[in-house]
Amino acid sequence: MSQRFPVIEFGSGIRASVAAEVYTRTGRVHIANFLSPACAERAYLSLTSEVPWQLHFNDGDRLYDLSADQLDALPEPDRVGLMEAIYQKAAHKFQFLFDNFSISDMYAKQLHLDLYVMGVLEFLNSPRFLDYARKLTGIRDISLVDAQATRYRASHFLTCHDDNVIGKNRVAAYVLSLTPRWHADLGGILSFIDKDGHVAEGFVPHFNALNIFRVPQKHAVSCVAPFAPYPRLSISGWFRRG
Fold first, then answer.
1. Rounded to whole angstroms, how far apart are CA atoms 17 and 132?
2. Does residue 4 have a pLDDT over 90?
3. What is the rounded distance in angstroms from the CA atom of residue 102 to the CA atom of residue 85?
4. Fewer beta carbons within 10 angstroms: which end of the chain, N or C?
């Protein structure tokens, strides 16, 4: 069987009218059973066994990616020092630390095209899904959905930000959660921050759930607990104009 099968299909949770009502009222919506069960299971398998992950982190506006081999090649004191520097900056500045695989970038370079997650990207840019995204958000000129795979292991996090980057034309963000058997104590919660700095709402990772939220909107991913028995897995990105 090809790595790109089964063919990706909507699941039972897709009702644009209901989701649009919630999204219009709150600026965000949680949609359960986004993909068919077979597709969700296959996407999960792709994330756990096919994707070549890299450690992804920032230093201000500069982005860094380290492969497993590069990370292993660092002397132990350097690895410890790198993590300590990242955690110190996170206390005061925008900072993130997680594993990622840029599906859109690899697709544009015609690399790793046999991976199942590449089929997910194609589905998200299909006329069927783009029409769904336009109806849900009320934005008729959405023309592109980009994607990255993310893996948050113990002590990985993403601090508060609003996704509003000049020139990116982002109108909404999405997170397709593919983490089974997760609960709030394990962290990794998609948290929405109000104007007073309080957590207004949080979405706990739930297998085969699609979370969509308006851009700009302050949000964060809380630190994954050191006792989490497995990583938080998802495919995420933005709905964009132009």
1. 10
2. no
3. 24
4. N
